[in-house]
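Researcher: Going back to the complex we discussed earlier. I've cleaned up the inputs and rechecked each line, so this should be the final set. Can you rerun the prediction on the complete assembly and write out the structure?
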Amino acid sequence: MKGEKRVESDLALIDKVRKRQPLIHHITNGVTINDCANITLSCGASPVMADAPEEAADMTRLASALVLNIGTLHQDQVETMIQAGLAANKKGIPVVLDPVGVGATPMRTEAARRLMNRVQITHLKGNAAEIATLAGVQAEVRGVDSGQVGSDLETLAKKAAQIWGVTVTVTGARDWITDGQEQIEVVNGHELMSTVSGTGCMSASVLAAFAATGEDPVASAVSAMATYGVAAEQAARRSRGPGSFRVELFDAIASLTGEQVKEAACVTWRG
Amino acid sequence: MKGEKRVESDLALIDKVRKRQPLIHHITNGVTINDCANITLSCGASPVMADAPEEAADMTRLASALVLNIGTLHQDQVETMIQAGLAANKKGIPVVLDPVGVGATPMRTEAARRLMNRVQITHLKGNAAEIATLAGVQAEVRGVDSGQVGSDLETLAKKAAQIWGVTVTVTGARDWITDGQEQIEVVNGHELMSTVSGTGCMSASVLAAFAATGEDPVASAVSAMATYGVAAEQAARRSRGPGSFRVELFDAIASLTGEQVKEAACVTWRG
Amino acid sequence: MKGEKRVESDLALIDKVRKRQPLIHHITNGVTINDCANITLSCGASPVMADAPEEAADMTRLASALVLNIGTLHQDQVETMIQAGLAANKKGIPVVLDPVGVGATPMRTEAARRLMNRVQITHLKGNAAEIATLAGVQAEVRGVDSGQVGSDLETLAKKAAQIWGVTVTVTGARDWITDGQEQIEVVNGHELMSTVSGTGCMSASVLAAFAATGEDPVASAVSAMATYGVAAEQAARRSRGPGSFRVELFDAIASLTGEQVKEAACVTWRG
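Model: Rerun complete. Updated structure for the full complex:
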């Protein structure tokens, strides 16, 4: 009952994003930086991307949420990310960490762990392999390629959330969200998402825009993933392939109402 | 009358851009760099983006105009921008400065002022807040969010143009262009422009492509803003949201003729 | 006859790319990096972009092909490219060099030559001016602007291929491929390609994805250029300008089958 009530009240959170137009500061990768800016705008929030060490923390102090993405990380960016993260912590705004490709190289894994240790992350978002790697149990991951979250990972995500005090969002064919207490599954989305670079990075921007409203982390993550997934479903219906899907995704999320998300969302609250 | 005659003669300037295909060198931000390259091509000019200190000035010497954009500035880029700017000054080609986000952080404000002091800028293009900040009167800005240029800003832009010897283009729902003597208002454009990242940056590329024809700065700016605005209006008619608007914007500007711009332009010359 | 048999057997190579989903590591320019990632995905391969000196070679060791593109080169990237290139050579995976703008500035020319000297390049891909410049005979280039490959360049490309032991792909209205022995012309493609930034860079990604299958270099290059060109022809039929062409290009290549490429390819094997 509690779960169902939350779903009722929170799935229209995009309406609040549009009303508040929060500024979302990104320190992110160079491949998908433009997509992240545009999806932030399409949600009704405002993006700013500033990663110079001389101004990153200053920019964070103007923002309502911070996204850290290590997709094309350079070593000197890690310290900049930490400074921006600490500024966010001090201001009390949510920090979303997208540990892109963690586990692929030692540098990336070390950088992600250092960020986790130095900054109080609010939202950790990644695919099954990334979340498992960060938690140090790469060998136990099941079904990464198929986007399935195995039962091992459910347990793992829950424990990771408890240890670090973060809300974990594991993306895939089903998205899995947990703060260590509650566990929620969102099954909206479309397989075309995996054919476009940046759909993962963009989900972190959406998450940050929703978190910036001040709603509690789990509610923000559920609403963000459902909204993004519903938009992807609508976009897929108008698309002929990855190029048109990407265009339609911006159009779809920009025209979505909270009411439409509530109707189309497929969310299971596991309490 | 003088004003009206100029409008007649200059609004078809895109035809000349296409004929000359000028090379436009950009030192610009990482968020919208691809959009800037593509809008330059769609205008009929050729883009080149090179920001290594070892080659930036060399590249400027091959170009017919230079765009400096501080949207994702790093500290060491400032000196590179100055070197490229000085090379442009020496060659006598126009320099467009887009002081993105000036005023948001001390680093950005200082960098923009340093560029203004060291390089003879031809065109200063920004929104009302950016232009006002650069002129040191942030507190007096009116209606930035609504895109309106208040009467204070008109006075301010005029004074800024006189002091620095630049042509100022203040973008918004109405674009306002002045060289300190003439004042021109262009009201073409569409509100969808504010839903896509990079529409501001792209207007600087269009401006540079037009300025590269050798027309006088005011005439170039008026023609560029009118052309870009007419293209945006056409694109909006074919769009369902920000994703499709962006695609249509490139298509629209690529197929526009000077004659069509002259017919659809909404320009008021205030003498 | 030999030529015709090869064409029969190799033009459907995209089917093998989709089956193997090779990881393609790019160290590339910031203007078109997103397009390169997306065209790689649309071919059925997986892109990764990592250019930090601390991890670039590590990432190459996970990949099945490496793309080096000097479009927005910084001086410190050259050594990173060399380290990644040497890792690729050691692993025995193909290396594609796209010497964007070589000849425009001394820095760029020197960097490209240094890469050629230090790394065993598999595929050298560029337009006529770039290939000629690298081979040190800029003055002899004919018809660069029109995209025509003059007879001088045919001879030149052949010699360059022999001297360096690379497969040379000269792109233009006609693509010209040679390994110093065989010479093949591919005339698929569309003039809209020259109106979109990144169509050249993307062809290097397609080439790398095809080369990663392990087919011989000439066969890979012919199949890649024919596939990309056929996709461009399909995209052009659905486009109204550069914006829509770019969208349709991703859709087209993502839905192409090897059978369709074989039917539409226009390849002349000159033996």
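Model: Worth noting: The domain at 2-269 of chain B is CATH 3.40.1190.20 (UDP-N-acetylmuramoyl-L-alanine:D-glutamate ligase).
Researcher: Good, that matches what I expected from the previous run.
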